[in-house]
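FAQ: What does a multi-protein file look like?

Like this. Sequence, then tokens, then the next protein.
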Amino acid sequence: MTAASATTGIVHLADRDPAVSGTDMVASLVPPPQFDGATFESYRADAAYPSQEDAKERLSAFALPSASAPRGGFFRRAKKEPETKPGVYLDGGFGVGKTHLLAAIFHAMPARRKYFGSFIEYTALVGALGYQKTVELFRGSDLLCIDEFELDDPGDTMVMTRLLGELVTSGTRLAATSNTPPNALGEGRFAAQDFLREIQAMSASFETLRIDGTDYRQRAIDGEAKVWTDAAYTEALDEASLRGIASDDAFDGLVSHLARVHPSRYLRLLDGVDAIGLRGVHTLYDQAAALRLVAFVDRAYDAQIPIRATGESLSSVFGDDMLAGGYRKKYLRAVSRLVALTHS
């Protein structure tokens, strides 16, 4: 199903079965609505972390057309310009503004053919169109932005790196952000070298920029996701349904439904929804279910849809064993976004 025709009322996400065509996927390869106006000027660099301002300046230069080298005369030699690599890779913790900077590159680069999507959107497109058709679609494009580059699935990772390798040879410039660090390197860090090993021959195509900092989402709000009583939840959803479309689902029902919907369709699952309601939240211990929830939270955050929930706090939705494992950064980023959405 597509977005509901009604403009107000209550819907159940577990009843939706969205279909997304390859054409729809390509059309959606633009920055999320919250980053429609993202610019380098609007990026709020934290003075306590100079790497943020440094990254902004470097990326501003990357987004500009390549400057022509000054010509040399008979008696002077043209100044040698530093090598400019075709790709930049933003390496940093969650909430330091990597996606904002990625969107700023997209908006600032004067390119006719440019695309912006999450890693999962690109791999889903390969699945829908086939590898060769995807190569033909993007060949000759000016810019490809890949948010949340995944290292979870070796197969998907190698498909994407092979695709990017082919596009670089056709002149496409690349910009990517990281999403999955090895747990051994600690909270909020990504092993750039692990990524470079994965992309093998493409390693020389990327300049890795480290962005340090604290999660901006935690600077102005409480550190816990807000929990509603049953009465307050009902009142909040009733109020939201008078102004727009509110969803109302049992937490277990939504988690089960996400297993039947490909993550590439999660954004379409939320079409037209202005508020998300979840009843009976509890800690998840199944990693596959937890990772699907992370993908869902990412799409809800992209669309900036408030969440109202009962039961346990969404801050504790991922078990301790998960937070100590290899997907730690994913879960912490999702918790950060859940906190923000329950307070919005």
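And here is the next protein:
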Amino acid sequence: MNEAGFNFAQPAWFWGLLVILPVALWLVRSGARAARGPVHRYADAHLLPHLTGTRDLETRERWGRFLRWCLLWTLLLAAMAGPRWDAADVRLFHPGNNLLVLLDISRSMQADDVTPTRLGRARQEVQDLIVQNREVRLGLIAFASVPHVIAPITEDTQTILNSLPALSTDLATLQGSRLSLALDRAATLLAGLSAESARSILLITDGDFDEPDLNPRIQALAAAGIRLHVLGIGSPEGARVPGYRGAFITDRTGAAVISRLNEPLLESLAQSGGGRDRRADFRDADTRALLEAAAVMRVPPEAGDQRTRVWNERYWIPVLLLAALLLPQFRGQPRRKSQA
């Protein structure tokens, strides 16, 4: 609903108009004092400019400059006071559903036991989340040994979509997968949201990491109201892990390292976090299930009736007038034509 009207956001700035009165009194007194100055004893008033190189302003000129200054001062105060009109009533923000995605980009995500690769499938799963999502605000953290915040919790999912093609295992300068650091970073981001909001983490990974204290960390997050859901990428049979320049990563004996989907570990993490554990596939059932698990906040209809008034600020109008009046003061002196 729009409402026509006019007011000032900070009308107290107009107290500054009281400065005009003492300035006017000072102008009167300084003009009278100049007319009785000792220099008038040595020459008539019309000869003084030729002796001193300066001249006193005439009364009309003096008060003309004063009125110009008053106008500029009033426009400045008007801009500071914040004129506004055409208010609009908008709905207040209410706690909602927030899902922060932790995407594993460690070297094992390059395995091709799923098509095209684990990371390629993971990127497709994130895209499906965005396309099918209607109720959840999303964020994205890519992690290997170090977490990288790609996008905080936001409604601008187009930013996340645009960043997906650039996510690769080459972003990780140090190889390895440390989920604990990514969980700490996610907890920091989610802690800035309202405690009344539904806050969840979605871990997309093959589970190829070995950290003994993960379950206690995830249980602490669940106790703080942050649930953990897991989406497994890969297969139990596994595949070799590509290295650099087309080679495969080998162990100390020279045998190729086989990375397998660690389903028992991922199921244990989901249970500790009070969330769901799904295995990625080409169907939409996994995506819908995870979105439903994250969209647990249901705002009652009457809560949406609360509104606040937002005014269209017009402070820029007196600012433009002020700039237009001051602009002639910055023009340069006219150049004198050289005599031949």
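Q: Is there any per-entry metadata?
A: Some entries carry free-text notes. For the entry above: The two ends are 72 Å apart (CA to CA).
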